[in-house]
Amino acid sequence: MSESSRSYSETVRRVAADIAAHPQPLRLRPAVRRYAWGGTEFIPGLIGIENPSRAPHAELWVGSHVVAPSDVEVGGTRLSLADLLAAGAAAILGQDAAVRFEGSLPFLLKVLDVRSMLSIQAHPDSRQASEGFRREEEAGIPRDAPHRNYRDRSHKPEASVALTDVWLLHGFRPPAAIAGTCREVPELAALLRGPAEREPAAGLPRAPEALSAIYRHVMTVGQDEVDQALRPLVDRLMKSDAAGALERSDPGFWLVRAAELFPVRGGHFDRGLVSLYLLNLLHLRPGEGVFTPAGVLHAYLEGPAVEIMTASDNVLRGGLTPKHVDVPELLRVLRFDTPPARPIAGEARSSCERVYPTPCAEFELSRLDLGPGRAFARGPVRGAEALLVVDGEADLASPGGNLSLPRGSAVLVPNGLRYSLGASAEAVVFRASIPGAQDQDVH
Question: What does pTM read for this prediction?
């Protein structure tokens, strides 16, 4: 070990011991992810940096995920949150959460700014992730290999809340609506009509067997048949788009953009384009959210949002991406029995807190609208909580110290610490916590 590495390790251990003895709010420096689909203004503006080259800033990560952990700023020293948790998880998360989540923060809080649509994708449940990870480990596939599907053992449910207008695809439309597409979009009739006509009895409201048959057909039919359907459709819609006849509420609007973004060599078309007519098109207004459980096919199309998920990187893709697409594995994890997708407004827990409930044991997300007469107070934290200021400026007070939190600031409040948040003017803070964490060793 080099002298600098030894000195860093000693600093991490010292800071962890200090947090155990004197709990304090930890100012975080989120990690920026510069994927090509990201916007160039929202995230730089949020964190107060210049972006003269207009480089894409796609995501801001608040968490300890090994791919891009946040840094912790303590006494002028910057440390990796992942390293700090490795040295003192029990002090930061509490003994119960440290054991349950193997010494890591169980959630990853993000800000995304989607300028160009993301891939059609779904995520595995816990059993599928564990089995898939084991298979790929036994097969000797490197964890960073481009064709690897399962990079960890965790499921990856997600919840997101729109910061401005957000458009996304989320879950399958009912078979009857897809059958209607055959009439409204004649170019797709030959591709969809056969499977759609095999819809089970009307007594099955979502008819998962029909949805499965339709999607499996689209994803496995020969490329020539896909091209025959999509070539005239893309040509027609591009003419409509050039004439200004397509609105964002029309799947054709997004198909034109996807066809331009994801061309396939040799004059072929990405079959993921068909999913724009198979999935629900959702428009989230500011403050509206959506929950995405395992197995639900989805894709972000446009706009900035706060997102929370388990700390996992397991993704199965169904097209509209240059990345690895594994159709058999995607079909294995997909669910066709989910209810219709609807935006959720959240539940008011107090005059300033709105919670977006999910069934997940790893995270809970809420939005705090602060201002004169609207402060938020929290008793001893159970587990750990992350706070992210997305608008205005907030002030955090706690027995372990006070922090001023300008827009773009993030902080981790460790187990056992009480705190309050206030603001002299309007401010918006997102709070990520561990639901139902039970710790007996609070400070």
Answer: 0.92
